[in-house]
Amino acid sequence: MGESMCPNEDTEIGVGDDVKRWRFILNELKNHPKISEESFVALEEVLTNVFFRSEKLFASCSFVDKYQRIMTGIFEANDYDFYLQKVKHEIIPDTFEINIRRHYHMIIQEISVSKILDQMMTNCVLTSDDRRHIEQPVRQAEQNQALLDIIIDRNRSTFDIFIDALRDSGYDGIAELLRCDLEDTKEDTRTAQMEGLSAWTVPLHKVRLQKNYVDIISNIKHEAIVDHLISCELLTIDDQQTIEACPAQTEKNRKLMDRLLHCGEKCFMEFLNALRSDDIYADLANQIEQTGVTSIDIANLQSCYTKM
């Protein structure tokens, strides 16, 4: 942010000028996804000084009148802490995007995305194409960055599932940092997501696969399933080689799921048949086939595709 426009302790205070200044700062924040926590703290202190010094220069009634769109209530002069809280909670509202940006650099250095992506796909807030995009870079930090950018671009529901996935993956501290001071808006988010739902319909078999994503990748052995799908001409030898190239069983299963989620309903039905051919997986096949699909599930996936 330019020094000439950003207020500091030596800035001459003018009411109209100050309004322009803090609006400029907030716009800058929205356009800088990598702003650090230190920058936020400094900004809070600067804005507090601006309002604090304005109070000393103008009568209380004039101050309230001029800033009625920013704050409400009567303020006690010389109460710096009071102003600081006003700045934190009213001038810079905590939204999930800002919370991510506030801790952006720390998160991309700390987390590993594989299990987080598993949970988010199971909850239908990421697609297989999202996962391909996220995992395309080799470096973990770049994968983390791709995930955060998608979450910022989506909605509060995606963020809430991300928080749950962080906790399930052992990142409780990061989850608490991101969740701090945010109101519970899940119901409002769901209502907003469902608007325009009739305009597009996600194939039900794809939703059922995704809702069982973690159970599938955690429990199956892929070999016989892949052989069956090849015999049905639904997978190719190249697909098989791509799956086998993965070092661990869970990774092989993830690659198989990627193929299944890009196939049609016939492939889905033959996948269930392959599971049922082994008594060990019969219950899993029934679970997948009988999985309930709600309007929220479809809305979550629809929001993924409309943002792509």
Automatic annotation (TrEMBL):
Domain CARD positions: 92-181, 209-279
SUPFAM superfamilies recorded: DEATH domain (SSF47986)
Swiss-Prot/TrEMBL GO biological process terms: regulation of apoptotic process
Superkingdom of origin: Eukaryota
Gene3D superfamilies found in the cross-reference section: Death Domain, Fas
MF-aspect GO terms: death domain binding; protease binding
PANTHER family: DEATH DOMAIN-CONTAINING PROTEIN CRADD
Name of the protein this chain belongs to: CARD domain-containing protein
